[in-house]
Amino acid sequence: MWSDRLPPEDLRLLVNQILSVVPPASIEQWESPSPASQSEPGFAWFNGLPLSKPLAIATYSNGEGVVSGPKGSVRLHARGFDLLEALLTAWHGAPALLAGFLSYDLAAELEDLGPAPPESFQFPQLHFGLYKNAPAHQPEEELAPIFASCPVTSRPSRACFEAAVERIVAAIHAGDFFQTNLCRSLETCLQPGSEWALFQRLRRINPARYEAFLRIDVRRAVLSVSPETFLKVKNGVVESSPIKGTRPRGRAADEDAALARELLASEKDRAELAMIVDVTRNDLGRVCETGSVEVIQHAALMSLPTVHHLFSTVRGKLRPSSGLVDLLRAAFPAASITGAPKIEAMRAALREEGQWRGPCMGAIGWISLGRADSMELSVAIRTAFVSEGRVRYYAGCGITADSIPASEFAESRHKAAAFVSVLDRQDDP
Questions:
Q1: What integer is the mean pLDDT of 290-300?
Q2: Are the beta carbons of 213 and 298 closer than 8 angstroms?
Q3: What is the DSSP letter of 111?
Q4: Neighbouring residues of 127: CB distance < 8 A, sequence distance ≥ 6
């Protein structure tokens, strides 16, 4: 369950194991870290600036974590959110931050999502580095060419995606749930070493509020250009800004304005967003002070280079007894990429997609380890990950009772357009 917490004695054991490889003295003596190369494991780049080389790296998959630091490495047997809580406890107060990602698939550790699909890639479910707060300077690097010689494949295919929409709509009419987020993955081969070039081209053609590149190792990386705030915490105040509703940008100013007006007036899209706002309010209400959760902005227009969106902002005040990991447990994954009611919507999506999502649709960002707890995580939409010479990108759509299969597939194409175009291909199937 999302509310399950590790017993104090088990948490202390994990903390002591972490401190055995990253003792407090090593953090205190950690001065002027040098910049890392984008091809070096542990390299992290956020919103225009790279972070310094990490002092430690924590990675986790399927019940086992590994923390590597100045004194070596230690294997830890724990669930993902328990490991994260142990990291925050061990390093609390340090003048540093944790930066990395949480895989969407960690949701299966919080709730029973039904039969698990087979894994089709090897990738961590959680990966964070311990970094100095200040970014390091890095000179501009010349971008290498991108080589994606094999065709782009879609899973599910167009026919299967539209059939899945039909089944979901029928389930909604039967009263099983109100809305779910259905994703298809686009995948192609990628020349090793061109991950950074792919990311830079993505952020140039489709810039967003949250831009991140995380190097896991020489053959694995995460690339994200997300416009959506999952959780932002400062001085105990939490904000989440779910996005729902999409229209492509117009080719001319009048066409573009008409598409924006159409989205703002769409009853279907506004209803979809309203449902997700309710889920977000419920998630924050689990850990926020009674009466503090409120919608401070609703159904506002967000215009990006390739699409228009609707978004809302929900705010609350964390209870003194609730920490950042409690908040993550309560709200993860983001409501906008799950559905309503949340658990049944996730189960339906997993059945139809038949595959894990990996870091896509999870969360990417940073957590401060200073005395004043703060955190900022994006929803990992417009996100790709590279593993063993393949790159995978997910495009999701909110499916409701009024969804039209062909229209939902077209929306997924709009959302994937930037990714397909930077590959210099036009074969989104």
A1: 96
A2: no
A3: S
A4: 57, 58, 59, 60, 100, 101, 214, 216
The residue from 228, 352, 353, 411 that is catalytic is 228
Residue 355 confidence (pLDDT) above 90: yes
Catalytic residue among 244, 317, 342, 415: 244
* 228 given a catalytic annotation: yes
**Residue spans of beta strands (DSSP E) within 322-408:** 339-340, 363-368, 375-379, 383-387, 390-399
100 neighbors 46 (Cβ within 8 angstroms): no
End-to-end CA distance of the chain: 38
d(CA 27, CA 98) in angstroms, rounded, equals 13
Q: Is the dihedral of CA 357, 358, 359, 362 positive or negative?
A: positive
Q: Take residue 9 and report the two structure tokens written for it.
A: 């004695």
CA atoms within 13 A on the CB side of 166: 7
Backbone angles phi, psi at 5, to 5 degrees: -125, 150
| Residue 244 known to be catalytic | yes
428, HSE (Cβ side, Cα atoms, 13 Å):
23
pTM: 0.94
Taken in order 86, 88, 94, 98, the sign of the CA dihedral is positive
Q: What is the pLDDT of residues 379-428, one digit of tens each?
A: 999 999 999 889 999 999 999 999 999 999 998 998 898 888 888 655 56
Bridge partners of 385, per DSSP, are 222, 392
